[in-house]
Specification:
13 helices; about 5% strand
Length: about 290
Amino acid sequence: MGPRRNITFPVFGDGIFTQEGSAWKHSRELLRSPLQYKHYENLDIFKQSVEDLIDILRSHSGVIDLQLLFFRLSLDVTTESLFGQSVKSLKAPKSADEPSFGEAFNTAQDFVTKRFRLPDFYWAIGGARFRKACNNVHSFADQIIDRNLSRSSEKRRVFLDVVAESTADRSALKSTACLLVWTFFLLVRHPKALEKLQEEINRSCSDLASLTRSDLRDMGYLQNVLKETLRLYPSVTINTRTPNKATVLPTGGGPDWTAPVFIPKGSTVAYSVYAMHRRPDLYGMDAELFRPER
């Protein structure tokens, strides 16, 4: 893992994103059972939040900022699925502290990105603004967890019930909101793809009340649209790896990038997922284009 743990620890704490070895395996096992598809097969957990979003869209005319709404949608569904109760930020963002959380989370992420660029001197990037943002993120998550720990749900065993029994992992993600934003960004710029997707939805979703996760998985073009969106705009654009022993990459060196590359133990190897997903030798000369049919 190298310096990654120290770089991201102020934001994510001691959780699956900052662990390795046995601790990482333990956190992965905690996540495996409560996040299995079978627990949310009927999609009921999404219903209220989606209806709240549709109500907002119907009440507005003209241009509307979907990015903020998708962030709130993701937040509501995530807190419902993980903690057993939604914060309902779409209905009352102020009471959910959503604006302050969103701003704090973005600030903290910006600092983490800069710290990754200087892995050996990450400690030089921080200060009072970074610490305040991290504290606000933790405070928001703690409020949600403490609130829901006192309201035990009898309907189902949620993620929080499992985590509370064995660990204090309190982290947050917004990759779902980003995926939704980029998907709509691309679809409105590619009307033929949007029309094709609408046709598949109309054909496959005649009875919305009985729609299941299996139905969504069977919608091939929808899956292609999401995968193509993630190819062009991956949730993690840059990542790093640190070898625990000296090793050799088979290619990537020399003037033509085909020679082996020696990687010393403990060195940081960064790679751009964003660039890899746009390689013409892998995806063709139209790798920069949005084409779900590929």
